[in-house]
Amino acid sequence: MGSSHLSTDLPSGRTTPGGFVQFDVANIEEAIALAARFRAAGRYRYFRGQRDAQWKVISSFAREGVAGRLRASEKIVAFAAWVREAEKLVPYLTDDDKIIAAAQHHQVTPTTFIDFSTDPLVAGWFAADGGVPGQQGAIYLLDPDEVSKIFEAFSRSGPVMRFLEVDVPNLWRLQAQSGLFLEAQCNIDRIWPLDRIVFAQTGVTPAIEKRRIYPDRRSHLEQMIEDYRLNNDREVALLGLIKSEKTVHLHIEHPLGDQMPELDLVPLKPGWSVGPDERWDAIDIDSAPPSWSTGYIMANTSALIELVAARRTCTDLLVINPDISRRNGTAQSALERLWEGLRPHPYSAEQIATAITSLIRLLEVLGDYPIDNGQSHEPAAERLMVNPIEIEMGIAGGNSTRAFVGSLELWQSLSEETRVRFEQKQPIDGNSLILILIQFYGATLHLFDPKTLVDLFASIIVPWQVATQRSLLCFSPAHLTTLGLP
Length: 486
Fold this sequence. Notes:
Elements: E1 14-15, E2 21-24, H1 28-41, E3 46-50, H2 66-85, H3 96-105, E4 113-117, H4 120-128, E5 136-142, H5 144-157, E6 161-164, H6 172-176, E7 179-184, E8 195-200, H7 220-243, H8 270-273, E9 291-292, H9 294-299, H10 301-310, E10 319-320, E11 325-326, E12 329-330, H11 331-342, H12 349-366, H13 378-384, E13 388-395, E14 399-406, H14 407-412, H15 416-421, H16 430-439, H17 450-467, E15 480-484
Helix pairs in contact: 1-4, 2-3, 10-12, 11-12, 11-17, 12-17
């Protein structure tokens, strides 16, 4: 629709039978330049690129049929329920709009949100990426001041139409794309046909790297969503098994019944519970990391600590050269996963450096050990630890993961109250420690001192999970619901 505040130095376009104004240009470069002029003049402020000008601007939810919309509704309800049950994992997804925004940008399910951007260059990238030479692409244009009141009036008696500028911590894709949303539960063209810039596709894309549109490193939120997907797939498979005729149902009671002893739970410091809040514009994706050998890393702890502190806002810590390639993957890929998981949390530089050196020792010991064949990892653990014990950790949201730890280290992580309760003030053997953990099965967070538990996570629990390629990882003790024996 034409705007009432036209500038004389801007093209007027042509009004089409569809009721919108179209501006025809030769190529994507001219389309982006014109959109930028419109934004500078205040004529349009929101932009959306589509590589085929024939496509309608409708939400992914609206593109679904009846059955698809039902599935999408069930998926968003399930995702929202997980977010609320897993408050420790994603405490920053605090309302429905943020939940749907995360689901939209990470393809959890089709939603009624339509992506727009305040940056013409971003819209131009989407308009040209994957475009077929000979066809036409389009940048769609919106002036929110002109249409917001119309959408608001329409929403009073019909489907919702509204603009949303949502601030979601750790949603790097939204931040990288200068993104916002138009929530539309119907076909926009029926309410307000969008003005557009149409150009010929030539196979050329704007001069902006794809990784600046789609970050090539995972934020904390993306890690959590991927864990959700994996756990959800497992639950679906389990439900299918339960429904099968051959399923055997077992009822397991706690060994102590309702007589389980209680201990006061001392919380972690507040910084652990609020969740990370990393912003795309504050993350360094460009500076080149140094290249170190594993030998240099292990022999230069002080230099490693300084490097961790200096590159805390960088997506890459260092390049391992020469890299170590084993049956279980490369040292570089393991380091990247460790750094990705630990960096957003309030671990000290010393703790992260300890985790890195621990990881390298684990990789050297594991070598080509077949960790993917279902065999116990205890033989490998026994080469690194004294009296290793395998622990299982329940993670908020219903997930779980495992790690081996040494009996002494686990004992030292117990709180003073726990030691007094069991009249054990000196380190004890592994069997005695197992008996204590069994008594507190399902409630063992009450056993541990928060500070020493954080140290234990950094020194062995996280490195073990990474080195053994656990499909679900717990990087922060703040995410735990239980910690005990498998």
